[in-house]
Every structure is written in structure tokens, then in C-alpha cells.
Amino acid sequence: MLFEVQGISKRFGRIQALADVGFHVRAGEVLGLIGPNGAGKSTLFECLGGTLPCDAGTLSAGGRLVDAKERRSLLFYVPDGIAPWPSQRVRWALDFTIGFLGGRENLREEVMEQLDLRPLLDQPVGALSKGQRKRVLLGIGLLTAQPALLIDEPFEGLDLRQARDMAGALRAHAARGRTLFLSIHQIGDAARLCDRFVLLSGGRVRGEGTVEELAAVAADRNASSPGSSLEEVFLALT
Amino acid sequence: MWLLEKECRELIVSRAWWVLLLAMGPLVGVGFISSVRTYAEVSGLNGTSAGVGEALSPLIGVWAPTFSACELAAVFLLPFVAIRVVAGDRQSGALKLELQQPMGPFVRIAAKAVALLAGWMVAMLIPLSAIFLWKSYGGSVHAPEMLTLMAGHVLNAGLTIGLAAAIASFAEHPATAAILTLSVTVGTWIVNFFGAIQGGWWERAAGYTPAAMVAEFQHGLLRMDTVLVSLALIAAGLGIGAVWLRLGAAVNRRVYESAGIAMVTACCIFGCSFARANWDTSEARSNSFSEADEHALRQIRAPLRIEVHLAAEDPRRLDLEHRALGKLRRILPKTEIRYAAATSIGLFEQTSAGYGEIWYELDGHRTMSRATTEEGTLEAIYSLAGIATPKESEDDVFRGHPLAVSANGAGAIFYGFWPGLVALGGFLIRRRFH
Question: Which ipTM was obtained for this model?
């Protein structure tokens, strides 16, 4: 196990965005965080990434608590819908990721190839389309050196072909031991890519495990088998 | 280094900074050209009768109005540049990525401040170019007073950067930050206004507002307490900015930390206000008595008490402060000055017995004078102390540097060359980045 999350809660005024959220993340796996809109997926990632304070909760690794400083060397979070350094060129953004964020220079060429970033290198980040920007963000995330990479909506804004290529790239990095934790609202995408799932709804974890394990949980709760597809399990548990 | 480079890149692509640079040329030009014309007229150009003394000090006659462009830019333009640099990362989402690098928040905000200060120094090249023009006309430049003046404008810019950094880091939107920053600036003007009317603590507080601070530096006066208070305020602004840039810290914690910084700063300011060291760097010694008078005054060991029966808005009180008491405080820091008046304007107190009297008390002896001039004040003090009035040396008198010339070429430089250079620079940068 790479790390364990326990009891994360977050409230925005009267709204309980996250309530006692807990799950495990195994080393080298591709873990999918799935849930309907408003389930608290992005809020959970923000809390884990240290860009939003949570009201309660801990993260532990190897049986001991991980503080905010150590967390930065354990995981890196790529938010959705941002356009960092909009006036700077993509080339510089990648250099900055390697130079300032401690990214891996040896992966630069490979990541550029996998995400087809070469044609974008001389364009300012702010001038990119939504899909192009997403590819750059994924490139930034893949270049970082932390063992776990959290990506919020990795396929948002990508067309079918790009999404497939992206899934292949993510798989390749996971195969080399990188742990990926992906927040995905398209169940089909999640089912194709992820090894295990954390199912979040209404700010609570409704289940954690493989599709089969989640199906068993759903069968227990509903006293009938929901079927073997992730969509059916998702509908049964949310 | 990566962070500093990034902040510098963000600054040079910021339109706000280019607008500041573009505006500086004409702003400096207006001040320089009109002040050189006035200076020339006072010096006898076109048959006008030549003035003498302080009127012909380049510091007061030329440099204070020329560099006042910096004051305007620091108040109305620099806040937008600073807000763009500080709040830009938050708006674009870059801050969420950068915060995941284990670097202290104070280092982050310091990098932004250094880049902004560097940007300000570039802007100051424009008024600095006026010095070369002035020298080419045959004008005199006294380096210490020029350095003091520039230090004042750098400190003033630092205050603006600190304030804008603090506000931009916690305001949700840059527009809100801009409004709040300008509101604080207007607030300092209100403090100045109250200081002029109410006197007392308001007056003391008004002495540390950016406008009052710059005015001192414009007169060549370098006061340790002013410098220290400014540095404390700049550090506080940057500190609060650093605290609020930590998006992952609980809001309550950030509020407590900000309150802590505010309290420590208040204590620092209180402590710094007792620093007495100061230097009159003006060539005209416009903040000092003559050397002979200063030598005589230094012989006084007993504490001097002065009670002034003049209202806060009475022009005679302003005269007394600027011509005598301000200078006296520098030589005899233990002097206790008390103002007594029943009203703020003094108009209806004129007939009251005792109004307008200035009482001097030294070693149990008292004397009264109504003079608000330097000579009258010194005469009263010498008579109390039993010191003979020192003879004024001819060398002590500042004769000024009359210069009856036109500001030839200044229009072309400030209205043409600088704006053209800035526009070209902006165009090239835009091509480089877009």
C-alpha cells in the first residue's frame, strides 16, 4: 500500500462536501475516483493535494501519519480547468516543471511524444484550446517525480482518439510503477483504464475495490446482483 | 532562481507594467520641463529678478517636482502591476501547481517583491535620465540629496508593493484587490487630513503615511524612524501576503497568523518611532539650523519645554513647525513640545488671552515669544539658556545654483524617445511571447 486516507471531511458553510472519506491507494495501481457531478471528487483531490484545507482527516503511509511537507514528496495533484502561466510558452512550462517542480528531465522527450506536445511547444499556454491545455497539464503531471499522481478529469476536453492515446500513455507510466489516482466522471473511460475504484457520492465513499468487489457490495446492499459492468454497479451504489 | 525568473517573465508580459512605463515618460516630462522653466525664471531668465537661497536649490526647485511622477505612479499605477503579479498565479491556477513544490511561502512572496522592485527600478530610469539632461544644461547635482530622494521613492514603491501583495493574496478577485488597495491609499490621505486638523496622535500617525514620508525625502531629510517604520510595514504586507498564498492552510489559522503579524508590526512601529537618528542630506540644509546655531544649541543640556498656543490649522503653527521646531527636534531630541488650543482652526480664539503665545521653559526659567520664525525661536532659546547668539558665517549661507536655461530637448526625450522606446519594447516582448 502506498498510502491510506482516513476520515477526510470538508464543509462549505451548510454543505457537507466530504464526510469521513477513507480509502487505500496501492503502489503502482491505477485507481479511479468515480462519482456523479457534485460528489466531491475535485474537493477530495484539492484536500489531498494541499490546495484546500480540509476540516478533518489524515493521510498515512507505512503506518505513520504524513504531514503536509512529506505529502508534497509523496503525491502531485493536477487540477482540472486551469491555465497556468498563460503568457508563457508550453516549452517554458515544461522546463519550469522540470526545473522548479523537480520534474524528470529523462522523461521529457517521451512525454512530449506520448501527448503529441511538440506542435504546441512555441504556443502560449493561454492560447491553447481546452483539449490542448489538458494535454499540457497531463504532460506537466507526468513529468513530476512524486510516486503518486492525482489527475482531476484527465480526459476532459479530449476527443475519442486523444482519450485513447492518453489512456495508453497513463497505462505505460503506471506499468513502470507510477501510481495514478484519476478522478473520472465518464464511467466508460474509468472502466477501460483503472484497476480499482473509489466510488464517491454525496461526499461519502460508497465502495472501494475492483468492479467485482463493488458488485458484491452492491449485491449485499440491494439484495440482488446489479450485473458485472461498472455502469450498473455505479447506478446500484449511488 | 527558477521562481525569480518566472516572476520576472510574468512581470515583463504584464500589460500593466508597460502602461506604467509608457505613462512615466510624459509624467516626468511635465514635471521636469515646467520646473526647469520656473527655476530659470527665478534665476533671472527673460529679465525676471533672480531669487536667492532655497528657491534655487535644485532639490526643491527641480528634483522634487520631477520625481513626483514616481509618487503618482506608485499610487495609481504600481498597485495594478503588483496585483497582476501576485494574484495572477491564483487566477490562472498556476499557484495550485507551484504550491506543491516544498518552498516556504515567504520565499515565494519575496521572489515576487524582488521582481516588482526590479520593475520599479526600470521605471525610475526615466526620471533618472532627467539628471543627465540637467547636467548637460550646466546644472548642479548634489549626490547625497538625490540618493535620499530616490531612496524615498523606492521605499514608497515598496510600501505599495507590500500593501498590494497583502490585499491581492486574500482578495478573491484582482478588481476587488485594486479597489481595496486604493481605499487604503485614500485612507492614508484621510489620516493626513485628520493629522492637520486634530494634531496629537493623528499628527504623529500622519508623519508615517507614504505621502508624508515622501515629502521628507523630497526635502533631503533621511530619518531612521521613517525608514524603519516603512521597512516594517513592507515586511508586514509581504508577510500577510505569504500567509494568504498558502491555499492549503485553514482560514482560521491564516487569520490568526495575520493578526500575529499585525501585532508584531504594531510593536515594531512603536519601537521604531523612538529612533532619533536622522540626516539632513540637502545641500541647502533646509532641515537644519546653521552650523553655528547647531553648535550653540548642543551646549544646552537641560530639557527644553515649549508650549505653543496655536490651533492645529493656524498657518502660524505650520510656519513654526517647518521653520523652527522641526529643526529643533533634530538637534535637541529631548525637547518637549506641547500644543494647546481650544479649537482646531483658531479663528475664534484670536481674541482669547494667551492665544498665539509660545512659552519656552528651560532649567526653571520661562520666557514668552510670539515669533514663529527661525530667528525668533532661536532668540528666545538663547536668552533662556544665557547663550550669546552666534554670528552667522558667510560660508553657512546657501547661495543656491541659479540656472537660467530652457529645457531644450526634454520634450523630445520624455514625450518622444521614452514612450517610443517603451512602445517598441512592448511590441517586441509581445512578439516574443505570442
Answer: 0.92
